[in-house]
Amino acid sequence: MGPARDVAVVAFAQSDHRRRTDELSEVEMLMPVLHQVLDSTGLKTSDIGFTCSGSCDYLAGRAFSFTMALDGVGAWPPIAESHVEMDGAWALYEAWVKILTGEADTALVYSYGKSSPGELREVLTRQLDPYYLAPLWPDSVALAALQAQALIDAGDTDEGALAAIAARSRDSATANPHAQVRGSRPQGDYLVRPLRTGDCPPVGDGAAAVILAAGDSARELCERPAWIRGMDHRIEAHALGVRDLTDSPSTRRAAERAGAFDRPVDTAELHAPFSSQEVVLRKALGLADDVRVNPSGGALAANPVMAAGLIRIGEAAAGIHRGESHRALAHATSGPCLQQNLVAVLEGEPS
Question: Can you list the residues of the chain whose pLDDT is less than 50?
Fold first, then answer.
């Protein structure tokens, strides 16, 4: 889907991602992030034309938990607000479309997740087909291990290459003060063969927020806006047995529709919670060897569920804001084995 208006990411903020935040509610975890992203632009809540959030009631263990997070935003006087039961990247997509249609000129997008209160591997089984797969309780790590083994059997990777991906990601995270895991470490024992502990993402809590603005408003709010040149999302078949787990045609199609193949990118922020999934995404996106992949550390350094995808877009935009990147690709995923995939292409203006 190509833009009818010029829309840019003008601000990005995230929390420090931690293994546990028992002393904080979702609202208390989110509020500093919202204040930071608004303060960076000088905007107030009343200046925002549309607000959209992403979260998961299954993590919170109660229905309509997202309404409590609105206490951190301020819903009075009444605001134009929406919510997706998805990663915040999909909330950003909704907000982007809202601005494209002319119904708003600015948007606040936020997402958050506290994975620490429950057993995340069990919670994520509720994403599976409710008749055939979910009753068997195959957890997220076991399913990712099936994908990793399929890649190894196909000759696309091996355990040494997966270990190198994990080490590179966490070494990159050394410069990221928000990352939960920084610096390379031993791969550890097998969690589910062929995946070792180091091939898997940390479980933790975190939040993120982004501000979008259109046209001249974006230029007034940000010295170097990250213009969204295209964004699209696609989905694979729900049944894992009818998919080729070594490929991601939905990612490829989303990237094509977003314009990712029109010109090379210099940076790619890939939402690859498992080291093996970076192999699949690199192949689907046709990334050249000189593309910087996950300079922030990616999901292997911090993977707050429901916020990690939005963080990939935010990190790609922040690189453009700082002048470190000129054309970046951001990817978000949801569901088992890269089931749902979103791709955004961002560009900075010429210096």
Answer: 1
